[in-house]
């Protein structure tokens, strides 16, 4: 295999088209320079330079090889700095998983802060439910998750990013929209309900049944996405329960109603990571996340 020294010798001769001047540039004598070019051509298996006593010229193969040689030398020169940047966490890749509902609240702000403070870090995003994020963080296919609790603190580092209220969403003009106070159990029990799916959207389902008197005989639809729930409510298919941040969806034809003290601040969103991770970009990003979580 050829060496970087051989590439530097070839590049100097190719640019100067004169062995004597190339030797001066390289601060060496001509005989070892000539030997380096000969060895390079032997490794490559083609003539790269045509030379006689009067002239030196690149062959067609030599011109093509010069482009590649310059690229290799440039990469070799960048490699140490790139390694130092990655080791310092100012460069590299950060793979982030997120729940769909996190886009209504913290995701955009968090990504902006990472871009501003770690411009050399490439962020890769993947929308996943919480369980798949847990699996990805444990296996190493994800560096960071933005997901719903709970998490095992022995495995995961956890930082609370955001808390918000669980709210009732009803069609515009619905009698509950004008009540001026949280609905009673009797009022909720008389309504057709759209519930989060207990399997795919278990977090919101668990919150709803924990704080509200749910009559499952009144459930007309179960769906997994918050946006779908609000859209069905706007279509007057029933009423439902969503995080307060769902209001940013801007879906017309619905009204959001507070559910009272029991539903205040109960919707939680966490940043999670593997405590055993050695990705320097993650550890730099965590400092950004810790600062951001104080103002989100």
Description:
Belongs to the LysR transcriptional regulatory family. It comes from Microbacterium kribbense. Residues 2-59 form the HTH lysR-type domain. This is LysR family transcriptional regulator. InterPro entries: LysR_HTH_N, LysR_subst-bd, WH-like_DNA-bd_sf, WH_DNA-bd_sf. By secondary structure, this protein is α/β, with parallel strands linked by helices. It folds into three domains: 4-88, Winged helix-like DNA-binding domain superfamily/Winged helix DNA-binding domain (Arc Repressor Mutant, subunit A, Orthogonal Bundle), CATH 1.10.10.10; 92-162 and 268-293, Periplasmic binding protein-like II (D-Maltodextrin-Binding Protein, domain 2, 3-Layer(aba) Sandwich), CATH 3.40.190; 166-264, D-Maltodextrin-Binding Protein, domain 2 (3-Layer(aba) Sandwich). It contains ten helices and twelve strands. The protein has helices at 4-16, 19-26, 30-44, 60-88, 107-117, 130-139, 185-189, 202-211, 226-234, 280-293; strands spanning 49-51, 56-58, 92-98, 121-127, 144-147, 156-164, 166-171, 193-196, 219-223, 240-243, 254-258, 267-274. It has a five-stranded mixed beta sheet with strand order 4-3-5-12-6, with helices on both faces. The protein has a three-stranded antiparallel beta sheet with strand order 10-7-11. Strands 1-2 form a two-stranded antiparallel sheet. Helix 1 packs across helix 2 and helix 1 (4-16) crosses helix 4. The longest helix is centred in the N-terminal third of the chain and has 29 residues, at 60-88. The model has no long low-confidence stretch (mean pLDDT 89).
């Amino acid at each position: 295999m050829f060496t970087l020294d051989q590439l530097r010798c070839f590049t100097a001769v190719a640019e100067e088209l004169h062995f004597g001047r190339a030797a001066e540039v390289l601060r060496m004598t001509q005989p070892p320079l000539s030997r380096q070019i000969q060895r390079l051509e032997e490794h490559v298996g083609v003539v790269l330079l045509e030379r006689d006593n009067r002239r030196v010229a690149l062959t067609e193969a030599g011109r093509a090889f010069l482009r590649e040689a310059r690229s290799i030398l440039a990469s070799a020169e960048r490699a140490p700095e790139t390694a130092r940047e990655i080791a310092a966490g100012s460069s590299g890749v950060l793979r982030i998983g997120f729940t769909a509902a996190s886009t209504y609240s913290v995701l955009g702000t968090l990504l902006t802060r990472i871009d501003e403070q770690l411009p050399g870090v490439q962020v890769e995003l993947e929308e996943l439910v919480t369980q798949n994020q847990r699996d990805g963080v444990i296996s190493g296919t994800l560096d960071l998750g933005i997901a719903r609790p709970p998490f095992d603190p022995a495995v995961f580092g956890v930082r609370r990013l955001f808390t918000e209220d669980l709210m009732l969403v009803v069609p515009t003009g619905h009698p509950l929209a004008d009540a001026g106070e949280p609905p009673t159990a009797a009022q909720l029990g008389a309504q057709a309900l759209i519930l989060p799916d207990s399997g795919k959207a278990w977090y919101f389902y668990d919150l709803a049944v924990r704080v509200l008197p749910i009559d499952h005989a009144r459930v007309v639809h179960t769906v997994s996405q918050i946006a779908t729930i609000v859209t069905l409510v706007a279509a007057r298919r029933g009423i439902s329960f969503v995080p307060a941040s769902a209001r940013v969806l801007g879906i017309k034809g619905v009204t959001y109603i507070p559910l009272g003290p029991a539903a205040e601040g109960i919707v939680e969103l966490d940043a999670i990571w593997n405590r055993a991770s050695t990705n320097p970009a993650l550890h730099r990003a965590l400092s950004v996340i810790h600062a951001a979580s104080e103002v989100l």
